[in-house]
Amino acid sequence: MADKQTILVVDDEQDLLDLIEYNLKKEGFDVLKAEDGQEGIEVAREHSPDLILLDIMMPKMDGLEAVEVIRDDDELGRIPIIFLTARGDEKTEVEGLNKGGDDYITKPISTTKLISRIKAVLRRFEETEEPNRIDVHDIQIDKDRYIVTRGEDEEFQLPRKEFELLYFLASRKGKVMDRQTLLNHVWGDNVYVVDRTVDVHVRKIREKLGDEYIETVKGVGYRFKK
Fold first, then answer.
1. d(CA 103, CA 123)
2. pLDDT tens digits for 100-120?
3. How is domain 133-224 classified at the architecture level of CATH?
4. What is 6-126's CATH topology?
């Protein structure tokens, strides 16, 4: 890493916070810490970390509540989030990923594997061979700023996953993309999410931009209209 990347670790277990901090610093990361979701959001707003490692069961504001606030925040919405939690049930995992998590890790996990997963998520957000801006129909999709503009006076700052889903479809205008392909590209093939995750994010994009851009291809998936 040419520049140090900053990881925000949000967990109410002080011993675990210290352990993760120690090992992340050994790997060359800067580390921020918070002990509940509310404090985590405040720290994130102040420092804009490169990734948030987020527990679920915490006082004041739990991780599921916190991820919703983060994804709805114009400044924080594009920060990758990994859940690190003792909640290993499938229902909570699916809920966490649907709300905007980029990976979901169940405690306990070795620090070596945890750091490997963190680096994998960071790589996924850094690596791109696509143009930084797409001009299509009457909108411009700017990947450098994660902003969508329409005309001279409309600007939309979509949460990260909504933006990346829109960008991926727009960069393949007219091509039908099945849900699994969309899940693999936007969420990663090592993260378990259900097909409905795509449908929910398409609906949210349509609520903000309108129905004229993304077309549903019944029984298959979606395509960005020509």
1. 13
2. 899 999 988 899 999 999 999
3. Orthogonal Bundle (1.10)
4. Rossmann fold (3.40.50)
